[in-house]
Amino acid sequence: MKIHILTILLTTTIAISACHQNKEHSLYNGQELRAGDIVLRCGSGLTSRAVLVADNGGCYSHVGIVVDSSGVMMIVHAVPGEHDFPNDFDRVKMDEAKTFFLTTRTKNGRILRYSDSIVAQKAAQAAYRLYKSGIIFDHEYDISDTTTLYCSELVEYAYKQAGILSITDGIRHDVKLPVFNYEQVILPSDFVHSSQLTTILEF
After folding, report:
1. HSE (CB half, 13 Å, CA atoms) of 148?
2. pLDDT of 159-193, one tens digit each?
3. What angle do CA 17, 56, 171 make, to 5 degrees?
4. Where in the sequence is the domain holding 124, given as residue range(s)?
5. Residue 46's pLDDT is what?
6. Which end of the chain is more exposed for a tag (fewer CB within 10 A), N or C?
7. Residue 57 CA to chain centroid, in angstroms?
8. Angle between helices 46-54 and 5-18 in degrees, nearest 10
9. 36-52: b or e for each residue (b if 16 or more CB lie within 10 Å)?
10. Looking at the predicted structure, is the pLDDT value of residue 145 above 60?
11. N- to C-terminal Cα distance for the chain?
């Protein structure tokens, strides 16, 4: 059976931090977010460190996309281990910005924006549909199969549904570490380096 080290590390980190979550504050509460904005965070836990090792110097370990949910800006993202209720499963989920950026999960963050707001809104609508459809997390990190999605794959796919061939400029990576081996992976830092996105805020 294939060992999914990122899932194991994330589950451990969440378990350790869960009992402190109510006492923690949010690093960013979502002021001035727009539908289609791409949000990144870097945590201090074991999972974040594993992603940063895979990213070879990248600054972020997780990414999501802002959607308009009945007039409230929310963040849709695909993440394992952050379960909302008993017997919940790893899936595409939707959180408030203050939950996404809890200090138990976030050391620093960044907001990126696509210049065409109509396209960005279409990407957000696609992401919201994926959330509503109950898409599960892609533990295989397989970009060729969109029936399951990991965080970077979700954002890339949402913008592709809005007509953008690749919001990350087609950048892909072969990740080869002792415990796992994935090909053609999109990493969170690829959004930072995209020629199509502008940084709105860093914190």
Report:
1. 12
2. 999 999 999 999 999 988 776 788 999 999 999 99
3. 110
4. 5-202
5. 56
6. N
7. 18
8. 150
9. bbbbbbbbbbbbbebbb
10. yes
11. 40
Of 21, 133, 23, the residue nearest 78 (C-alpha)? 133
Examine the pLDDT at 13 and tell me if it is beyond 70: no
Q: How many domains does the chain have?
A: 1
Q: By C-alpha distance, which of 148, 31, 48, 53 is closest to 105?
A: 48
Q: What is the mean pLDDT of the chain?
A: 86
pLDDT, tens digit (0-9, with 9 covering 90-100), for 17-73: 333 344 579 999 999 999 999 999 997 655 555 565 666 667 899 999 999 999 999
Residues with Cβ within 8 Å of residue 150, at least 6 apart in sequence: 78, 137, 138, 139, 141
Residue with tokens 């909302």: 84
The SS3 call for residue 110 is strand
Say how far apart CA 5 and CA 156 lie, in whole Å.
23
Q: Global pTM?
A: 0.85
Largest CA distance in the chain: 45
CATH number where 78 lies: 3.90.1720.10
